[in-house]
Write a structure and sequence with these properties.
Helix content is 10%, strand content 32%. With 142 residues, it is mainly β. The protein has one domain: ph1033 like domains (ph1033 like fold, Roll), CATH 3.10.590.10. A hairpin with a 2-residue loop joins strand 4 and strand 5.
Length: 142
């Protein structure tokens, strides 16, 4: 079992919570094939500004992968402007393990919301830093 950290935005995290589906862009097909049922995805949501309110970045929950990756070109996720017409076609079904937030508390300070976080697959148990691999792997957002 491998633990992955996946980067997202607040809108797509809400879709993940409702539909129990995670998707990645076309360019990440090879990486997606490495994710297997039983793996865990920790979802990192980037900081965003909503009106005058800053929604902070956070690890929003843990999800167990319950299906093999599959391809579906139906538009489900919100595509960030810089990604053009991406539909995140390489997807997998997930089961909710743990949810840390329903809505983030507002912050009065802002960092650059364009900053993301790469994913580091981890062998072993969550929190077992002895199992962290030295190669970076990225499970991108929708």
């Amino acid at each position: 079992m491998i633990h992955w950290i996946a980067s997202s935005n607040w809108d797509n995290w809400k879709i993940l919570e409702q539909k129990h589906v995670w998707g990645v862009p076309k360019r990440n097909r090879t990486l997606m094939q490495r994710v297997k049922p039983g793996d865990t995805i920790l979802v990192y949501v980037r900081q965003e500004k909503e009106g005058d309110t800053i929604l902070p970045s956070a690890i929003t929950g843990a999800y167990e992968v319950v299906s093999e990756p599959y391809e579906d070109h139906t538009r489900l996720f919100t595509t960030p402007p810089q990604m053009g017409d991406e539909v995140f076609p390489f997807r997998m079904k997930v089961h909710h393990e743990q949810n840390n937030v329903e809505r983030p508390p507002p912050h009065s300070h802002a960092r650059d919301p364009r900053r993301g976080l790469s994913a580091y697959p981890q062998a072993g148990r969550a929190g077992d830093l002895n199992g962290v691999r030295d190669r970076r792997r990225h499970l991108p957002y929708p």
